Amino acid sequence: MSAADTFVGAPVKRKEDRSLLTGSGSFVDNMTAVGMVWMAVVRSPYAHARISGVDLEAARTADGVVAVFSGAELRDTWAGSLPCAWPVTEDMKSPPHYPLAADEARYQGDGVAVVLAETRALARDAAELVTVDYEPLGVAIDVERALEVGSPLVHDDLGTNECYVWTLATDAFDAALDEADVVVTRRYRLPRLIPNAMEPRSVLAQPGAAGEVTLYSATQIPHILRFGLSVTTGIPEAKLRVVAPDVGGGFGSKLDVYAEEALAVALALRLGRPVKWTEERSENYVATIHGRDFVTDFTFGATRDGKITSVKADVKASMGAYLQLVTPGIPLLGAWIYAGPYDIPNYSVTFTGVFTNATPTDAYRGAGRPEATYVIERTMDALAAELGIDRVELRRRNFITEFPNQLSSGLTIDSGDYHASLDKLLEMLDLDALQADQAARRERGDVKQIGVGFSTYNEMCGLAPSRILGAIRYVAGGWESATIRFQPLGSVQVVTGTSPHGQGHETAWAQIVADQLGVDVDAVEVLHGDTAVSQHGLDTYGSRSLPVGGVALWHASQKVIDKARSIVAHQLEVAPDDLEFSAGTFSVKGSPDRSMTIQAAAFEAFTAHNLPDGMEPGLEETAVYDPPNFSWPAGAHAAVVEVDTETGDTRLVRYVAVDDVGTVVNPLIVDGQIHGGITQGIATALFEEGVYDDHGNLLNTTMATYLVPSAAELPSFETELTETKSPTNPLGVKGVGETGTIAAAPAVVNAVLDALSHLGVTDVQIPTSPERVWRAIEEARQ
Ligand code: MCN
């Protein structure tokens, strides 16, 4: 590769993979420190219990134990609660949430005591010697029953399990719905999902001599974590450094300020020794946030000829036992897209946040948008059946076709071409052949039936703009920062406020900067994930890094070019406007032999021997970018399944996806993101569900019972892109990190129902396990 190449759009191999694939990555669990102690957390086995006594003596005297604390003993350590940054309504109930419970445990896995010992094994052994007297209390686990009068209360003093009610509706919504020719209402339950990042959470807190602490954490949010920990521990931000080294995935679950992070920081300072904790896999199932757990009543009102006129969603969303960083805001991340890619003038959404005695929920890939897309796309098929209109045709009749488009929900879609993605999908799918196969199997009465399901979706990602986030009561902004600095000999250092944990920013950011500055992609080094290295940033989640952080890089590049232009103009004694800049070289318009490279300008900036009067030395610029709109990717997906009608066994045979994410920076990365996202959506449809019993025991806490699919369960996906540039940013990009997860689940379930429609099956609870499919067939047959 050379500086003359164009890198944006090229399948540049990921720079980060060499070290990851050769085992030289640096994850927190690889780290060690002199004098380090290991932490183990004693967790409640009860979903709800009063703590009437904690006996720490046996643990304190056990081998290798350095210290043991109960929640009550540490209560005075905390300057504040673990933060919740999204009080979605003024009267939202936000109970205190300290790193350890002192008097009541409110979910299975709630931490009640902590042990520090010389080795990990000794810490775990000693944790088992802690005796806690629990008085079991009533448990609220089901999101609907928790709202009933007389339900056990998760937080007694609140007098209710209702955390908040949030609404958004167009004027005279009920009257508009009354006028619909046809009304279709369905109820959907999205199960609890348990994030399974390849790397479990891990922390190492290293105290300094003057009250400062460095926390290495497997986190997505080093910057936000620093101020969150400052709130909880009272340690000033200036004395807290947070480093996210290589991070092995997060999918939203590492977007939090966790109890173990606060404990490690506070106890490292207290003991004057580094403190380390790495989550066990089973611990991950109870101690890391969960996703989804929504019950939604969803309604479409439509005319007989298939124009949808009204959409209504009434959502009950489980918060779990406490509010983590953005728990209450998760439903809101879907609040504006319950009409999907369809033009629907009347709009009504109500969210009720509900406390339950379960692990707190929070962001899990898609956060709020898979929940919306699932109910929209399932109900599109139900409405098509009700109206006797082909399901693809019904979608087409309702697509938004004019852009920018002001939605009835209030936001504006930047750009899109929904017919184009669907056209391409149908070309790839060969629906006629599939339908002929389906008809032949039905005719023959085959045991194995096939079905085809569709999902056409759009979503809003790229979190920002700050003003809108403020208007919906999120306490932080949505901007992102970038610094670009030329080194004296011409290589380029980029410091980004984003914090990649698998998304390949080191490569993609280098591609953007290399193109703008006209340097080779290998000449660009990208630094991230360390609050001591980077300016303020807002980290990685909500598929924001490219449409916000990547665009910040573009702006910083223009500032660097502007400064270099002034230096070159001064050296060549021409006006800056007389220079043109191309492929890394400034040349005088009309006299191309009078030229200077940007690297030469950088060296001049470094020596500062001959700069324009008043110019600061150095070629380094920072930009902070706050976009004017969200980013609106969209697409059309289809699944083909084969269902054994005697056993309920369901196999995914094909998965075809056409996505539109605007300009593609790196097609290899985009394809990887789409594959990963689709896999997680398919898992929702077919495999994954965290199951609690009525006593609040989580029944599946290993991968033997919580079914994370591997490549063996999945066909090779067929993926293509259409490209509608975003007009709101100079790169024309939209986010991609969550699209697959948002789109996939309804496509698969619609396919299962299509396979069984001739038997009269109209619904199967997800995940559509063989047993559930078999029961649905049996019930339909009776
Ligand atoms: N990209 C591109 N062209 C586009 C869009 C994106 O080349 N038009 C590239 C970007 O340059 C970046 C990657 O795709 O390298 C993802 O970009 P973006 O959509 O901006 O998403 P983020 O980088 O902000 O990543 C967050 C997103 C989310 S919200 C979840 S959850 C998720 C995901 O990314 N978690 C992941 N992808 C993941 N991938 C891995 N490996 N691990 C996770 O935990």
Concise synopsis of the structure shown:
The chain is built from 19 helices and 28 strands. The longest helix has 28 residues, at 545-572. The protein is globular, with a radius of gyration of 28 Å.
Features:
5-stranded mixed beta sheet; binds pterin cytosine dinucleotide; single chain; alpha+beta; 19 helices; 782 residues; 24% strand; globular; 7-stranded mixed beta sheet
What does this structure look like?
With 782 residues, this protein is of the alpha+beta class. Helix content is 28%, strand content 24%. The chain contains 19 helices and 28 strands. The strands form seven sheets. It has a seven-stranded mixed sheet with strand order 3-5-1-12-9-10-11, sandwiched between helices. Strand 16 (405-406) and strand 17 (412-413) form a beta hairpin. The longest helix is centred in the C-terminal third of the chain and has 28 residues, at 545-572. The radius of gyration is 28 Å and the shape is globular. The model has no long low-confidence stretch (mean pLDDT 97). It binds pterin cytosine dinucleotide.
The backbone outline, from C-alpha atoms, is globular
**Poorly predicted tracts of residues:** none
What summary fits the major beta sheet? 7 strands, mixed
Ligands in the model, by name, code or SMILES, are: pterin cytosine dinucleotide
Termini Cα gap: 66 Å
Annotation, overall tally of beta strands = 28
Radius of gyration: 28 Å
Strand order of the largest sheet: 3-5-1-12-9-10-11
What is the structural class? alpha+beta
Give the count of helical stretches. Answer: 19
Mean pLDDT across every amino acid position = 97
Strand content: 15-25%
Helix content: 25-40%
